[in-house]
Amino acid sequence: MTGLVAANLRGKSSVLELVTWCLRGEPKKLRNTVRRWLRQVDLDTVIADRVVGFRLSLVDGQLTSAVVLAAPTLEVLADVRKADPGRDVVALLRASSAESYADQVRSLMMT
Fold first, then answer.
1. Strand 62-71 to strand 90-95: parallel, antiparallel, or no bridges (unpaired)?
2. pTM
3. How far is the C-alpha of 102 from the C-alpha of 42, rounded, in Å?
4. pLDDT tens digit sequence for 7-47
């Protein structure tokens, strides 16, 4: 278990919003001031015994591309450059807009 503890206005809610964005396809209340300074959001996790990596790229606070990857281990996912594409790491989805990403992530999570 991980706990986020800090004074107000230190980013705890923003971290949770970024996790929500990756897992649900869109953040609920991510502040525009936070979105503007983001360029990349990466989240590696295990969902239903499957190692999954979320990679979101942003420009001016807008999602420009996203990929969700599956890998055999978190270590392989962490250093995807050394992995064998197609064997070690597989793209579960690719999106080039916020709408496409949200739709695909919702579908992925339902399966």
1. antiparallel
2. 0.84
3. 16
4. 665 667 778 888 898 999 988 888 878 888 899 999 999 99
Farthest-apart Cα atoms in the chain, separation: 44
DSSP the chain: -------TTSSHHHHHHHHHHHHHSS-SS--HHHHHH-SEEEEEEEETTEEEEEEEEEETTEEEEEEEEEESSHHHHHTGGGS-BTTTBEEEEEESSHHHHHHHHHHHHH-
The single residue listed with the structure tokens 């807008």 is 62
Q: What angle (nearest 5°) sits at the alpha carbon of residue 30, between those of residues 37 and 65? A: 60
Q: What sign results for the dihedral spanned by CA atoms 98, 24, 48, 80?
A: positive
Q: Quick: pLDDT tens for 36-82.
A: 889 999 999 999 899 999 999 999 989 999 999 999 998 888 877 66
Dihedral sign from CA coordinates of 98, 104, 108, 110: positive
Copy the structure tokens of residue 31. 């502040």
